[in-house]
Structures are given as C-alpha cells and as structure tokens.
Amino acid sequence: MAEVELADVLVELADTLVDDFDVIDFLNVLTGRCVQLLDVSAAGLLLTDELGTLQVVAASTERTRLLELFQLQTDQGPCVDCFRTGLPVSVADLPMAGRWPRFAAAAAEVGFAAVHAVPMRLRKEVIGALNFFGTNPGALDDGKLRMGQALADVATIGLLQHRAIHRRDVLTEQLQTALNSRVTIEQAKGVLAERLHVDMDRAFEILRSHSRNHNRRLSELAQAIVDGSEHVPPDSSQARNNPPDLKP
Questions:
Q1: Listed residue (133, 126, 132) closest to 159, CA to CA
Q2: Which one of 21, 39, 46, 224 is most buried, by most CB atoms within 10 A?
Q3: What is the side-by-side order of every strand in the sheet holding 89-91?
C-alpha cells in the first residue's frame, strides 16, 4: 500500500514539472505529501540560493517555517548538518540527544520531539535538505526514510532541471540580444558611412569613439543613430586622442 501511495505522489510531482513550472507550489506540494506519506507531524525544506546560502523555501506549517528560520539564524540543527555533510540525520528524541541545544529548545517550544533530515543531492551536488518533524519521540523506520529520500531525490532532479533550463533560457536571451545589437550596430555604421561619406571601418571608429567619449552603450547609441534621434559629428574619433590646444 505504501509503495502505491509513493508511486502516486511521484506521479503527482512529475506532473508539476511541465511548462508552467511553479517552484514554490512544487515544493509546498512536496512538504505536504511528505507529512501524509511518512506519517510525520510536519516537514520543511531548505535550499541554497545563487550564493550557496541556505534559505527556507517551503514548510507544511507556519511553526515549522519559523523553526527552520531559527535553525538558520543560529546555524545549528539537523538541516544544517545534513546539508554540510550530504548525509541523512536522524534524532529520535531531541531532548535526550543533547544535540543543537538552542534548536532543541526551540523545537520543544513548538511541540516537536523528534527530527529527521535527508539531503537534496544529485551525485556530489547538494542543494538543500528536507526536514521531517515528529511531536512524539521515536525513530523513523528505514522504509519511511528511504521514501523520504526518494521524494527528495525526485525534487532535486526537478529543481536542477529547472535551473538548467532557466540558465539556458538566460543564455539564449543574452545571445539573441547580442545578435540584435550587432545588427543595429551594422545599420548605424551604414547610416554614418552614407551621411559622413566615409567607409564602414571609419564609420565604426566614429561610432565607437563617440560612445566612449560620452559614456554611452554602443548598442544604445547605434539604435539612436538608426532611428534618427541622435547625430554624430565626423570628428568624433578625434575628441579623445587629440585634446584641444591650450596654448595662449
């Protein structure tokens, strides 16, 4: 029965990895399904940002979210250790374990007595950790820990795929922008060459010199020349290299 439920959850998570992928919704679904499937009281998820710093991104309850934030602020707790080592962490009885005293005290205040964490890891890359909380002391059996790790693995693959696609899209957009700018610059060179009666090499020298002397982006200046909103004098390239004669 548990295997069937796990399969259903994996299908549900996979269904979210479509065109309109909403990361926050995906991770909130994940924490909610962890609670249902693993029979824990709450779940929370921490991920690294672009600087490699852990951030709370999802939690099944508000008290869990606040506890996860406290864990980051104090730099101690199961998710922090799990992320740093890339290994699962399991503490069946927080008050008796003597680990992370400040975190254990905060967890007790909101009613948690047991905690477990699994890494969000693909090969050697660890991007976060998934936390499971229990209100009563007790170990999470091996089968449920494996289920938790399987859910974390699926989520990790989805997130890394999303990041890769996002990076690819950004690079594609940057490349397209560069190509568009190149076309505009070529058009501006043609305008200057015709207007100033110079060849294309000389037109580019004038364009680049005017851009540098006036702290303008080359592509923006080129667009202004093409649409006729700006005119460049023919001696623009001499402005920087030949300063005015200051003799009396």
A1: 126
A2: 46
A3: 54-59, 42-48, 125-134, 114-122, 89-91
The CATH 3.30.450.40 domain(s) of the chain lie at 2-165
pLDDT, residue 51, reads: 80
Q: Could you give the percent of the chain with pLDDT greater than 70?
A: 78
Q: Is residue 236 pLDDT above 60, yes or no?
A: no
Beta strands in 66-194 (DSSP E): 89-91, 114-122, 125-134
Helix (H) / strand (E) element for 22: namely none
Domain 169-241 in CATH 1.10.10? The answer is yes
Tokens of 242: 């030949």
Counting Cα atoms < 13 Å in the Cβ hemisphere of 108 gives 13
Q: Give CATH 1.10.10 domain extents, the chain.
A: 169-241
Of 90-104, 121-135, 231-245, the least confident = 231-245
Nearest Cα to Cα of residue 125 among 162, 75, 160:
160
Domain 2-165, CATH class in plain words: alpha beta
99, exposed or middle or buried, with CB in 10 Å at 0-12, 13-18, 19+?
Answer: middle
Tokens of 55: 């951030």
The pLDDT confidence band at residue 21, using thresholds 50, 70 and 90, is low
For residue 8, the model assigns a pLDDT of 62
